[in-house]
Design a protein that fits this description.
There is one protein chain. Helix content is 88%, strand content 0%. The longest helix is centred in the C-terminal third of the chain and has 40 residues. The chain has ten helices and no strands. The protein is mainly α.
Length: 267
């Protein structure tokens, strides 16, 4: 009976996630059409969901999809690498900050100040330092990932209950054992909570770096589409990026729910 209930609960949660995802997509489409209608935008520049659908599925749809998805794979790959790099950096710094208050007082104000700099202004500077290649994209995607992850992870590492530390101390464990057996496990929910914000932002950061610096990926294709006045391709690119961001958010939220439930049972 127990496994059956657990399986039923899993399928129910999966169905709920799919319903929420479909509802989110429907809401975006309705807002899109509503905005075009309310503001009475010029159809030469402003394309409807139907225009994008015909662009992707019409007579030239196969070629259009091949070009867009090829560039999208590059952007998503860069965003994934940037997300991993930013999250790893945030985890390392969060551990140092939690274990050393002096480092926190020195580092956190600088981190907050850097976070306030607009990405549009920062990207050219990053390109000058790291060049106009993959490194630039990874740095920008890593930066937008780093800061929300750092704040969440610091809170998670500090959120471990005192009795858990007492248990480790009772068995002769030191600060290292406290970190590995208490702080890091209790920070896992914060890691997945930060992913809901940081992972979609990594896609935005990678696209922006491609748009302004690297000449690669779907960000660069959006620049070319704008130069050619191919606004349907531009809107199709934005629609695909938005769909990917929503899907990544939904995946992170689902993983967060699984981790939180297992974490609660284990605790």
């Amino acid at each position: 009976m127990g496994p059956s209930r657990h399986a039923g609960s899993t399928w129910r949660r999966l169905a709920e996630s799919i319903v929420y995802l479909v509802a989110s997509v429907a809401l975006v489409l309705l807002a899109w059409m509503w905005a075009l209608e309310i503001f009475d935008l010029n159809p030469f520049f402003a394309k409807t969901p139907g225009d994008v659908w015909r662009y992707l599925t019409g007579s030239a749809g196969a070629a259009n999809r091949s070009a867009l998805f090829s560039d999208l794979r590059v952007t998503l790959g860069n965003a994934a690498l940037g997300y991993v790099a930013g999250t790893v950096g945030a985890m390392v710094l969060a551990v140092v900050v939690v274990l050393n208050r002096t480092v926190e007082q020195a580092v956190m104000p600088v981190a907050i100040a850097l976070r306030s700099v607009p990405l549009v202004a920062m990207t050219p500077l990053v390109a000058l330092v790291f060049g106009r290649g993959l490194a630039c994209v990874l740095v920008i995607a890593g930066i937008v990932t780093f800061f929300p992850s750092l704040v969440q992870l610091v809170d998670g590492l500090r959120g471990a209950p005192k009795p858990a530390f007492d248990v480790v101390n009772a068995f002769g464990g030191g600060p290292r054992q406290q970190l590995l057996r208490v702080r890091l496990p209790y920070a896992l929910p914060s890691l997945f909570a930060s992913a809901r914000v940081a992972a979609p932002l990594a896609i935005v950061g990678a696209t922006l770096a491609e748009w302004l610096a690297t000449g690669d990926g779907i960000g660069n294709q959006m620049v070319l589409a704008l130069a050619r006045s191919n606004y349907t391709e531009l809107w199709a690119s934005v629609a695909l990026l938005t769909a990917c961001a929503v899907a990544v958010y939904g995946l992170a939220a689902s993983l967060e729910g699984v981790v939180l439930r297992r974490f609660a049972r284990a605790r």
